[in-house]
Amino acid sequence: MNSSLTTRALVEHMMTVMSALAAERKPDGSVIVKEGKAATSAQKVAIGELIGGMPEVQSYTFEDQRAAYDDFSREFASNQTLLKATKVSDMPESFRVLLKQGNDWATPVATLRRQPGVAGVFYVPCQKDTLLALSRYGVRPPEDKVCSPGS
């Protein structure tokens, strides 16, 4: 990883690919998530290979349920009630992807959203802006209204 990137730049170029739930796409593009059914090993390998081959990607890591739980525990260390109610098995597996600065995020997001075994793809800046609109105005605008491709 390029050590000259600031923490903020890292956050602004991160996306998360949730692969913990088996997900299928209907022909209309909508997602069918199969509760309780994990993405297969083959699907996770295929997703990793696809991410690794994308020219927009600087680096990526796979986060298993234990690592996700450890991060969650650190983040919410002051909320013992929440920690007691949450198990490792509650955590999703995911790929954490760092995009190269100056590259368009829309192409990798759209490509990964269509993959078997992907339950969701979240681009951090869009999520931040969506949460801001929700907290300030009580509305959840569609992602294409918050974050247009190329922004």
UniProtKB/TrEMBL annotation:
Annotated ranges, domain FtsX extracellular:
32-121
Question: What is the name listed in the Swiss-Prot or TrEMBL entry for this protein?
Answer: FtsX extracellular domain-containing protein
Q: Which domain of life is it from?
A: Bacteria
**Organism of this sequence:** Nonomuraea coxensis DSM 45129
